[in-house]
Design brief:
It is built from 7 helices and no strands. With 182 residues, the protein is an all-alpha fold. The chain has one domain: Methane Monooxygenase Hydroxylase, Chain G, domain 1 (Up-down Bundle), CATH 1.20.58. The longest helix is centred in the middle third of the chain and has 28 residues. InterPro entries: Cell_wall_mannoprotein_1. It comes from Hebeloma cylindrosporum.
């Protein structure tokens, strides 16, 4: 009985040490996260673009909300992975920056489209949909900012200005959409 008790205590100790030890992420994980973000940005943009100006369905509108939620979760995970990876080397920093620059126009397109589609969302028989979209936009902006800040903090010094300008442009794109739904 004492042997079982001490074995159990040992296993709990090992498990708690393993859980308390931070896992070092890799640049490859960050690149995979960015690819996942890009795919989710494209999916969200496609869902918004496909939503008709009249006659849209509640199911399609909730699909847009679900796509936004999936993107928010991915941004949160990616932010953690970037922070835990630490400073990026020149080559990796340039590759990461180029990857984000590649999907920046898709973000901007989605933000313009969501404003264009506001009357269609308002016309749906559920009253709180514009408020839900506003909540999604605010959360997307906050999580995009956190992710961008993490990338900037790990970027090579010569890429910081370019990364900062990219972040600022993306975040500014949220402002008209947030204003439209406020």
């Amino acid at each position: 009985m004492v042997y079982l008790k001490s074995s159990f205590v040992f296993l709990l100790s090992v498990a708690s040490i393993a859980l308390a030890t931070p896992v070092k992420r890799t640049v490859d994980q960050v690149k995979a996260d960015i690819a996942d973000i890009s795919a989710k940005v494209t999916s969200l943009d496609n869902a918004i673009t496909a939503f008709p100006l009249t006659g849209g369905s509640l199911l399609a509108a909730l699909g847009i909300h679900n796509s936004a939620g999936a993107l928010i979760t991915t941004l949160q995970t990616a932010t953690t992975d970037v922070v835990e990876t630490g400073p990026l080397g020149e080559e990796d920093g340039a590759a990461v920056l180029a990857s984000v620059q590649a999907f920046e126009p898709t973000i901007q397109h989605a933000l313009v489209e969501i404003v264009t589609k506001k009357p269609a969302f308002q016309a749906l028989p559920i009253g709180g949909l514009p408020a839900l979209i506003l909540q999604d936009l605010k959360s997307l902006k906050a999580n995009t900012g956190a992710f961008s800040d993490a990338l900037i903090s790990t970027a090579p010094e010569d890429l910081v200005d370019t990364a900062t300008n990219l972040r600022d442009g993306i975040l500014a794109g949220f402002d008209p959409a947030i204003a439209a739904y406020s």
